[in-house]
Write a structure and sequence with these properties.
With about 950 residues, the protein is mainly alpha-helical. A two-stranded antiparallel ribbon has the order 1-2. It has a two-stranded antiparallel sheet with strand order 3-4. The longest helix is centred in the C-terminal third of the chain and has 39 residues, at about 930-970.
Length: about 950
């Protein structure tokens, strides 16, 4: 089972490459995985029915006792057969549904198979934490599937609506899951159910709350009122998605969860009122709405909502016979509703319409399709000899045994009324799709011409529909297969165990079932004579959803206008005021202040400190922005001296590089704003600013002083030198800490760097993030030549091809720089030093494990080399120096860092666990390689990508925009 789950995760990665070669036939390849899972599940049938439950587990997070465990009891076995069997047929169906189309198929095929895998894992996992993760995975993947037609506004809105509703329910469910894990002390679902609701007092209240939250997640997933509205909207998806997700898979996830927990939790106080009340209401609401629809797909959608309500009631009732009936209903619903959705897909694909007003006489032209559609509708309405009839009769009998108890009487009446409405919209579906319509005068309407579909297109709906009859005739076999689930639930007091059969005699349930069908036929006749109103109430749940979104948008706008004023001083001032208030309160509330400071530790501090203080005071009085930036940088350079004299060469090296890059970034930004402070917007409230500044300075100084004597325990970094050598196999404690001992911290910092680079780029590249606009067009003849280049009117060329030119080209982009801005001396220096600086950066990268340096410092040095090229030759020279997208460097660096966290898992080690190799190499002697160096390479690439992104954004792109603006003005 674990191997199949891995296949579901990995095979989708290969499908996009196959689509380019095979087109829609790729779905036949994709179907191999669910077919294999179906065969494996069927192979486990003897063991499952004998009670020898197959179980596989892999410990994923030992500290939290989270395991990827797969447990195939009867319920999981049934759900696995549905998920894999229907999934395989839907993928085979997709081969003809998408025939001749290629756009979007690569992503669609991969996502559909991945969704099948997520559902397969969801119904088999025994770990509730893994279940909630797969639960959210299905929500995300369903969003991608529903939004397949992403150019249509309706599809995008429907996908977002489904995602928001199901994710909201999932978040509530997550809280309930956490409470259950805390209460039971385990993540095993089987253990929770075996233990049962044994708590008292406050724990019993907590269990009730967790139960309600669990039900919120299940009901939102299965489109039960008040969450029902997302399912009809999701009909904007391709029909195979509707057939699979909304009939056999995704909506069944909530029903599965209810069926899984009902045996143990049905007797808790909140369970039955919620399940029965909302289930019955949803059953009737969806059924009546289906009678108002004219779109075949929406008829089935609202019908699905109705029958999900019925499944919720029957399976959630928590009694042995109702559980047996509910599981039979679950099987039947997956078969007939998937078949009907696929039938609608055939009609839509052949006729490009699903409107019943535009269809007439299709049944006589497509007798096979009509016949099997009628069989599926008969199963849905509960007509013998289908499985729907068997399950419906079982459900009615189970509630009849409850007598006049409200908990049984309300579901009984609800199911009878719901069955009548089901029969009515089932007849409406057959009439709308296949019957010959008549006009107001009674004359037959013109026949809708029917082009015969490929035979393969009909395989899936015919098989699924035919299985409803097979399961009905073989109901004793079905009973023996699924009774194991029901037998684990207590019977009603005084009741007897029911069994599934096609004939139980002339019992009350039979007459009630027949009566509901007759009532349904009468209801259809009435609705044909007198159309129902489009709405019963003046508003719908969808209206409430849209109103909520508009309300959230208005609150967001109000909050943004209040807090996001576009004023940097306002933002910084708010942060500083909160900082002073919070920290000053903590300081004043302290019981004891201990200060342990020395006047100085080295003479260098006496030199650096006055300079830093003086620079700070002068910066306050600066009238030019660049002057202020340079003076602030003096304080940073002073820190370099302090670090260097305090035994921290790594920090000193990094500090000087960061200060240099920061100064360059400021210089790039300051080009676009007035040079003098106050030229554009005069400073306001100088006294308030001074007070805030003094407050921050005093507070920070107090924190620094008190921190010197506040330590009461040994520092955690004490054993780091030994750990760095023993675990990280390096002598540079700082670097080993960053890439090994505290690698997760560095991983988070890399994410922040990537977000910062993306944010800067998104602000500057307004319409197009592509770097192609700043890359030069290099002459092809210069690519591999080692001969000196000379400057020509056509750009740099080898001397042999331009005999008339004698001026040597030191940089490729030099000619693009205005003559008044060029510096030949600078170009020569950059040409000589660039490659040497790159070599130094690589040296710092690989030497950093034992000597000062590392990926961060090396990346900054390489970034400085790119800065030199840009300063000397402009944006064209930068493009020649780094002819790649900065995003690729950022992504490659993050992938390398993540691989260092993921790869150890495959060897049973913790994430970011490192190892090393020793080898004897000729000339070099003994060489050691530590795998954490790969992490450092990732850091190196991310830092280079960040610097390149800043140069491309604030440098090259700003240059391009300025040039374009100047050209527009002159034009």
């Amino acid at each position: 089972m674990l191997i199949l789950l891995a296949a579901f995760a990995l095979v989708p990665l290969l499908l996009p490459a196959l689509v380019a070669r095979l087109g829609s036939r790729t779905f036949l390849v994709a179907a191999i995985v669910p077919i294999a899972a179906f065969v494996h599940t069927a192979w486990q049938t003897p063991a499952v029915l004998a009670g020898d439950i197959p179980f596989e587990t892999y410990t994923w997070i030992p500290d939290l006792a989270v395991q990827v465990s797969m447990r195939m009891d009867v319920l999981s076995w049934v759900m696995s057969l549905i998920v894999t069997g229907v999934g395989a047929l839907v993928m085979i169906y997709c081969r003809w549904y998408f025939a001749g189309k290629t756009e979007g198929l690569a992503t669609f095929s991969a996502v559909l198979l991945a969704f099948a895998g997520a559902m397969y894992g969801l119904v088999l996992t025994d770990d509730i934490v893994v279940l909630i993760m797969l639960w959210e995975v299905t929500s995300v993947l369903s969003y991608l599937l529903i939004g397949f037609y992403h150019r249509r506004g309706a599809s995008r809105r429907a996908a977002l609506q489904a995602l928001l509703v199901t994710t909201l329910g999932g978040l509530v469910m997550l809280i309930g899951v956490v409470m259950l894990v805390v209460l039971y002390g385990t993540t095993s679902i089987a253990t929770m159910l075996e233990t049962g609701p044994i708590f008292e007092g406050g724990q019993a209240v907590a269990l009730d709350a967790a139960t309600v939250m669990l039900l919120v997640g299940a009901l939102s997933k299965s489109a039960i009122f008040p969450f029902h509205f997302w399912l009809p909207g999701a009909m904007a998806a391709p029909t195979p998605v509707s057939a699979y997700l909304h009939a056999a898979a995704m909506v069944k996830a909530g029903i599965y969860l209810i069926a899984r927990f009902a045996p143990a939790f049905a007797d808790t106080d909140p369970w039955r009122p919620i399940v029965i009340g909302l289930g019955v209401f949803t059953m009737l609401l969806g059924g009546f709405q289906a009678l108002r629809e004219s779109d075949l797909k929406r008829i089935l959608a609202f019908g699905t909502v109705s029958q999900l309500g019925m499944l919720t009631v029957v399976l959630g009732y928590g009694e042995r016979n109702s559980a047996l009936a509910g599981l039979a209903l679950l099987v039947g619903h997956a078969l007939f509703k998937s078949a009907l959705f696929l039938v609608v897909g055939v009609i839509d694909r052949q006729l490009s319409t699903r409107d019943i007003a535009e269809l007439s006489g299709v049944g006589r032209q497509a007798p096979t399709l009509a016949t099997f559609s009628i069989i599926a509708i008969a199963s849905m309405a509960g007509v013998a000899p289908t499985v729907g009839f068997v399950a419906k009769e079982a459900a009615l009998t189970s509630f009849l045994e409850g007598g006049t108890e409200p908990a049984a009487l309300i579901p009984l009446v609800g199911i009878l009324l719901g069955s009548a409405v089901t029969a009515a919209y089932g007849i409406r579906f057959v009439w709308g799709a296949f019957w010959t319509k008549k006009d107001a005068a009674g004359a037959p309407l013109e026949r809708t011409e029917w082009p015969d579909p490929p035979i393969g297109f009909l395989i899936a709906p015919v098989v699924l529909s035919g299985l409803t009859v097979v399961a009905g005739v073989a109901s004793p076999v079905v009973d023996s297969a699924i009774a194991g689930y029901a037998d684990g639930i207590p019977l009603e007091e005084g009741g007897k165990a029911y069994y599934l059969a096609l004939w139980h005699g002339w019992e009350p349930a039979l007459f009630l079932s027949l009566g509901s069908i007759v009532l349904g036929a009468m209801l259809f006749w009435v609705t044909q004579r007198r159309a129902l109103k489009a709405r019963i109430l003046p508003f719908t749940a969808n209206d409430v959803y849209n109103l909520s979104l508009r309300g959230i948008a208005r609150v967001s706008v109000w909050t943004t206008s209040l807090t996001q004023r576009g004023s940097l001083p306002f933002y910084v001032g708010t942060i500083f005021v909160v900082f002073v208030a919070a920290e000053a309160t903590a300081l004043l509330a302290g019981t004891e202040w201990r200060i342990a400071v020395d006047a100085w530790q080295s003479p260098a501090q006496l030199l650096a400190a006055p300079v830093m203080i003086l620079a700070g005071f002068v910066a306050i009085r600066a009238r030019k922005r660049y002057t202020g930036v340079v003076l602030v940088s003096v304080t940073g350079l002073g820190m370099v001296l302090l670090f260097a004299t305090s035994g921290a060469p790594d920090l000193a090296l990094t500090q000087i590089l960061v200060e240099t890059v920061t100064l360059i970034a400021f210089a790039l930004v300051l080009r676009r704003i007035p040079a003098r402070l106050g030229d554009h917007n005069a400073s306001v409230l100088p006294v308030v600013r001074a007070v805030i500044g003094i407050g921050v300075g005093v507070t920070m100084a107090a924190i620094a002083l008190i921190a010197t004597g506040a330590r009461v325990a040994d520092p955690v970094s004490g054993p780091f030198p030994d750990l760095a050598y023993e675990i990280g196999h390096g002598k540079n404690v700082v670097n080993v800490t960053l890439v090994d001992l505290r690698g997760w911290d560095t991983m988070g910092e890399l994410s922040v760097l990537i977000l910062a680079a993306t944010g800067v780029a998104s602000l500057v590249f307004v319409t197009n993030r592509s770097d192609s606009r700043v890359l030069p067009s290099m002459p092809t003849s210069t690519g591999r030549s080692r001969r000196p280049l000379v400057e020509t009117a056509d750009g740099p060329r080898p001397r042999s091809t331009a005999p008339g030119s004698t001026r040597q080209a030191w940089l490729v982009g030099g000619l693009k720089v205005k003559p008044e801005n060029r510096s030949l001396l600078l170009e020569v220096i950059v040409r000589i030093l660039f490659h040497s600086i790159i070599v130094v950066s690589v040296y710092l990268l690989f030497a950093g494990h034992n000597l000062p340096g590392g990926g961060f410092a090396g990346g900054l040095v390489a970034g400085m080399a790119l800065v030199m090229r840009y300063v000397a030759g402009g944006r064209w020279e930068l493009g020649a120096a780094a002819p790649t997208d900065a995003g690729r460097l950022l992504g490659a660096g993050m992938v390398l860092a993540l691989s260092c966290a993921i790869v150890p898992l495959f060897f049973g080690a913790a994430p970011l666990t490192s190892t090393y190799w020793k080898a004897e190499l000729p000339l070099l002697g003994e060489v050691e390689f530590v795998t954490s160096t790969i992490f450092d390479v990732g850091v190196y690439l991310v830092v280079i990508g960040l610097v390149l992104d800043v140069l491309r954004s604030l440098g090259a792109e700003v240059d391009r925009q300025t040039q374009a603006q100047r050209e527009r003005v002159t034009a």
